[in-house]
């Protein structure tokens, strides 16, 4: 009985007891980025997989090919050949029309590099999830 209790305690301490667990806390930069996402992006974008609003869901975007998440993308985005890295997201957020000419997104860019860095940090912390 004592061995079983120790095993259960060890599993619980490791977060492996089969129950729900909360995601890792966001870094301060990702927390600021989440606030920026809510203020500037959430009207059109969701983080949840399949949660397309008037723009594609962005959960798990880092490492994903542009135009690949089941949204009705513009031909410019589908044919861009972009794989979304942190660096590419930063460049895109700074000047979307320069990175993907003829894209249809109604966003003209975010000039502040610190804001872009925080937003990219938040996007990189997300994972695709079911709505």
Could you name the key traits of this structure?
0% strand; Cytochrome Bc1 Complex, Chain D, domain 2; mainly alpha; single chain; 131 residues; disordered N terminus
Short description:
The chain is 43% helix and 0% strand.
Q: How are the elements arranged and paired?
A:
Layout: H1 2-14, H2 28-40, H3 75-78, H4 86-94, H5 96-99, H6 113-125
Helix pairs in contact: 2-6, 4-6
Describe this protein's structure:
- The chain has 131 residues and is mostly helical.
- It has one domain: Cytochrome Bc1 Complex, Chain D, domain 2.
- The protein is 43% helix and 0% strand.
- The protein is built from six helices and no strands.
Helix percent band: 40-55%
Overall structural domain count: 1
Give me the Rg, rounded.
19 Å
Structural class: mainly alpha
Mean pLDDT: 83
Beta-strand portion reads under 5%
Shape: globular
Low-confidence stretches: 1-21
SSE pattern, N- to C-terminal: HHHHHH
Under CATH, the topology can be stated as Cytochrome Bc1 Complex, Chain D, domain 2
**Termini distance?**
41 Å
How many helices in DSSP terms?
Answer: 6
The overall strand count is 0
- Describe the biggest sheet? none
User: What do we call the CATH homologous superfamily?
Assistant: Cytochrome c-like domain
CATH architecture: Orthogonal Bundle
Name the CATH class: Mainly Alpha
